[in-house]
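Open question from group meeting: does this chain pack into something compact, or does most of it stay loose? Before anyone orders reagents, we agreed to write out a predicted structure and look at it together. Recording both the input and the output here so the notebook holds the full record.
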Amino acid sequence: MDTLAKDSFNVTAELPGVTKKEEVVMLGAHLDSWTGGTGATDNAAGCAVTMEAIRILKALNLQMPRTVRIALWTGEEQGLLGSKAYVKEHFADRETMTLKSEYAKLSGYFNLDNGTGKIRGVYLQDNDMMRPVFEAWLTPFRDLGASTITIRKTGGTDHLSFDAVGLPGFQFIQDPAEYATRTHHSNMDLYDRLQQPDLMQASAIMASIVYEAATRDAMLPRKELPKPEPKRKPEDSNTVASRDSQTP
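Structure tokens returned:
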């Protein structure tokens, strides 16, 4: 076990697929939180939504071809450590882009980590092939306000670990709901800031999208495989810093 993985303790569970159970659709949120509050909006809200999405799918006893796997990550606040370690162990090494056998079997990953607000849409992470897919998936939820699909990337959370190795990884757009102005990484991030109706809306949408991905005929379209990104050696960083500090 490498140094990245040894202190990362992720919680995973799954609903086994029926006819294509070796293929997997994932959803997740991060379990750790900032020290100022209790982490209600960052990110107990995301954990609650993803767990409720799984509960909905299980309660409906839906027979999905693909396996649906939930992951609650740790170490997100320290640099996405839990999801990075998981991706490296199961799918691909970002530094070498050496692919594991499971790489070809993951259809996509869906993440929620921007507070308690309603889902308003999704970031495509520059994967425009997913636009018509999400348009179809979100059509039933337009009356709930979920209709925005943007080509833009967003950062700062665990979908990046998947996207970095070329796997379809997506973060949803959410209502701000005082996230940036009051609760994010503050001592105000407490239970009373959670909005139950918004979390219920997000849970229903998450459950539906995961179901659609798990029952879709084809796997989700992927971007081009990224090139390896070797970790910089300390001497390389020093050389760059020295060069940048020189006056022309």
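Observations to bring back to the group:
The chain has one domain: 11-245.
DSSP finds seven helices and nine strands in the chain.
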